[in-house]
Design brief:
This protein has 217 residues and is α+β, with helices and mostly antiparallel strands. The chain has 2 domains: 89 residues, Ribosomal Protein L22, Chain A, CATH 3.90.470.20; 108 residues, 4'-phosphopantetheinyl transferase domain (Ribosomal Protein L22, Chain A), CATH 3.90.470.20. The protein is 35% helix and 24% strand. A hairpin with a 2-residue loop joins β3 and β4. α1 crosses α3 and α2 runs antiparallel to α3. It is globular, with a radius of gyration of 18 Å. The N and C termini lie close together (5 Å).
Length: 217
C-alpha cells in the first residue's frame, strides 16, 4: 500500500475526495481512504505522465470512477479497492476491469449473506464445506463476485446470483459461468489473488485470455 504522509496525500486529492474522506467517522478509516486515493493518483500519473493532483474523474451511473475525457490518452480503465491496511489497484488500456480486496474476519451474518447473494450452485458448494473452512471460502467467493460486478460497472445492481464462481477454501475462486454462459465464452476473465496473509482479493478483466501480474506499491 502507498505510504506517504497523510498531509502530503491530502494535497493530491480533489475537494470532492477530501469531502468524502471527512465523512469517515474514524480516523483510521479516513487515513486509509486518503492513502488509497493518493496512491491511485500517483500510479495513474505515472502511466499518463501527468501531475497526480491535476487528474480529474467522472463517475458512471452506479458510481464507478473513470478518468475524465481530458485524460483519454490510451483509454485507460482502472478500479480501486481497499480493506484494512491494503489497497488493490488494477489499470489497463481499453478494457473494463474490476477489483476487490477484503480482510478475512468473523461475520455473524456470513451464512445469511451466502443464502441471499450466492447462486444455487455456490450455496451447495459452500454449505458442503466444514465450518472451519467456510470463512476463507466465503471471502474468496465474495471478492470474486464483487470484482466482476465492479468490472461490469453495475455494482450490486447486477444480480450476484446470476453467475457462478468456484467456491474453494484452499484458494481464490474463478468464474464458472455468467448468466448460463460458460466462463470461456462469457467475455470475462476472473482471477483470485492472495495478496497477504488473512486477505482475499480478485481481479475481473474484460476478455477471454488474461494473465494477472501483481506489482508492489
Amino acid at each position: 500500500m502507498h505510504t506517504a504522509t497523510p498531509v502530503a496525500d491530502r494535497l493530491l486529492l480533489s475537494p470532492d475526495e477530501l469531502a468524502r474522506a471527512d465523512r469517515y467517522r474514524f480516523a483510521d478509516d479516513q487515513r486509509r481512504f486518503i492513502a488509497a486515493r493518493a496512491g491511485l493518483r500517483l500510479r495513474l500519473a505515472q502511466v499518463l505522465q501527468a501531475d497526480p493532483a491535476e487528474l480529474t474523474f467522472d463517475y458512471g451511473q452506479q458510481g464507478k470512477p473513470r478518468l475524465a475525457a481530458a485524460h483519454s490518452t490510451g483509454d485507460w480503465q482502472f478500479n480501486l479497492s481497499h480493506s484494512g491496511e491494503f489497497a488493490l489497484l488494477a489499470a489497463l488500456p481499453g478494457v473494463q476491469v474490476g477489483v476487490d480486496i477484503e480482510a478475512l474476519r468473523p461475520m455473524r451474518d456470513r451464512d445469511a449473506l451466502v443464502r441471499r447473494y450466492f447462486s444455487a450452485a455456490e450455496n451447495t458448494a459452500y454449505f458442503a464445506l466444514p465450518e472451519d473452512q467456510r470463512q476463507a471460502a466465503f471471502f474468496a467467493t465474495w471478492t470474486a463476485k464483487e470484482a466482476l460486478v465492479k468490472a461490469l460497472g453495475q455494482g450490486l445492481h447486477f444480480p450476484l446470483r446470476e453467475f457462478d464462481v468456484q467456491v474453494d477454501a484452499q484458494g481464490p475462486g474463478g468464474l464458472i459461468a455468467l448468466q448460463g454462459t460458460p466462463a470461456p465464452h462469457s467475455g470475462w476473465c476472473l482471477t483470485g489473488l492472495e495478496p497477504a496473509p488473512l486477505y482475499a482479493a480478485a481481479v475481473a478483466v474484460q476478455g477471454s485470455h488474461c494473465k494477472v501480474l501483481a506489482l508492489p506499491a
